Amino acid sequence: MSVSKSDRRPRGEKARVLVVDDEADIRELLDLTLARMGLSADCAATVAEAKKYLEREHYGLCLTDMRLPDGEGLDIVRLIGAQYGETPVAVITAFGSADNAVAALKAGAFDYLAKPVALDQLRSLIKSALNLPLRGDLSVAAATTDGMAGQLIGDSPSIATAREMIGKLARSQAPVYISGESGSGKELAARLIHRQSARHGAPFVPVNCGAIPENLMESEFFGYRKGAFTGADSDRDGFFQAANGGTLFLDEVADLPLAMQVKLLRAIQEKRVRKVGFATEDPVDVRIVSATHRKLKDCVDAGNFRQDLYYRLNVIELKMPSLRERQEDIPLLIETLLARICGDRPPPELSVEAMRALGAYSYPGNVRELENILERAWALCAGGKVLLDDLQLAAESAVEGGAGHDGETLDDHMNRVERQLILEALAKTGFNRTAAARLLGVTFRSLRYRIERLGIEE
């Protein structure tokens, strides 16, 4: 009697694992490791045997070799994805077969292991897979997050597609590349993938790759040993160690220098990192999610981004739609953003003209720009009502119209304006950064970050 594909394993029931490998010693190693973890396993040597086991038993995880006598591990990945969607599949590939690993992840595999199998990585993978939320629990995981920071607001087809894709990506360990314009919600999408994944209880570590000085890249990413360089007065972990067990989000990944791209590629492939000043490598278990507002493929074609790293990061792409592509979401976004901006105070009413103008505006800065417009309008409005003039869209349109002049992008234009304002504030305060930050109405830390990002020197 076969098990109904719609049935689900009760939460309290111990999961079984299906092991598929034609090598008896590998099957024995995996079976023994699972037994020591308190798990039971069924072992199959062929695709045909695996299919029979799947027909009569529920599995919390399937571990399969890529090469089998009567087929491929990809056949099992696709079969389980189509008919037994609650069961994550991890593939075991020959050492150095990066192409096979990427193919398996694209086909829907949860994760992969390279031969010879490292037992620490195997145990970590098994624990992550068995901790994966059931599909029906994904909406619950999303609903328990707080406020605007935990939601994708809107009902448009494009945002619904992104939300559905996030749910699918949460059930995998595959590297994800998030594309989209500035302000379209790429970091929010990365956080949602993490929160709905098996890694939700571990850290989410966001890194702005464009904000780190090139000479500090390696030590910031991988950590360092005391005395490794001037100023290293104690051992320190890097981003990879901080994100161990969780998700490392590499924002603006296109800004990484080529030398650092080589080191990052090795860390992703080997799942090991070496601190600056250490002779040995340490294993790390992180999921990589990356993003940039630029077209990463164009960076590859221009020779500014390594093609091999591009293929390792862009296993699955998630495209975040611009606000122009989902204008029907603007009224709901306005309502939600105003409620967040105003806090405990009642949000202002928008005049018909103001609402019409917000609906017709092009939003080159997307949701982030809409939030800035509403925050400014709330500060300027009187009598609890936002009028058209309070929006100051003419000023926004002037900035938008200036972008692209003589080939200047919006980001280039905004960076130039921001740089000029910071330089003027620094000049007025005799390069006293604390005073300049106060003059500009930002925190000292924010100003320091902006100075480093824009390369401003005294």
Features of this protein?
Helicase, Ruva Protein, domain 3, globular, 458 residues, Rossmann fold, 46% helix, 4 domains
Give structural notes.
The protein is α/β, with parallel strands linked by helices and 458 residues long. The chain has four domains: 16-132, Rossmann fold (3-Layer(aba) Sandwich); 153-319, Rossmann fold (3-Layer(aba) Sandwich), CATH 3.40.50; 323-402, Helicase, Ruva Protein, domain 3; 405-454, Arc Repressor Mutant, subunit A (Orthogonal Bundle), CATH 1.10.10. Helices cover 46% and strands 13% of the residues. It has 21 helices and 16 strands. Strands 2-1-3-6-7 form a five-stranded parallel sheet, sandwiched between helices. Helix 14 crosses helix 16 (366-380), helix 19 crosses helix 20 and helix 20 (433-440) packs across helix 21. The longest helix is centred in the last third of the chain and has 19 residues, at 410-428. The protein is globular, with a radius of gyration of 25 Å. The N and C termini lie far apart (77 Å).
Q: What's this entry about, in short?
A:
The protein is an alpha/beta fold and 458 residues long.
Detail the topology: elements first, then pairings.
Blueprint: E1 16-20, H1 24-36, E2 40-44, H2 47-56, E3 61-65, E4 67-68, E5 71-72, H3 73-83, E6 89-93, H4 98-107, E7 111-114, H5 119-130, H6 138-143, H7 157-169, E8 176-179, H8 186-195, E9 204-208, H9 217-222, H10 239-242, E10 247-251, H11 258-270, E11 272-273, E12 282-283, E13 287-292, H12 296-301, H13 307-313, E14 316-319, H14 330-342, E15 349-350, H15 352-360, H16 366-380, E16 385-386, H17 388-391, H18 393-402, H19 410-428, H20 433-440, H21 444-454
Parallel strand pairs: 1-2, 1-3, 3-6, 6-7, 8-13, 8-14, 9-10, 10-13, 15-16
Antiparallel strand pairs: 4-5, 11-12
Helix pairs in contact: 2-3, 7-8, 14-16, 19-20, 20-21
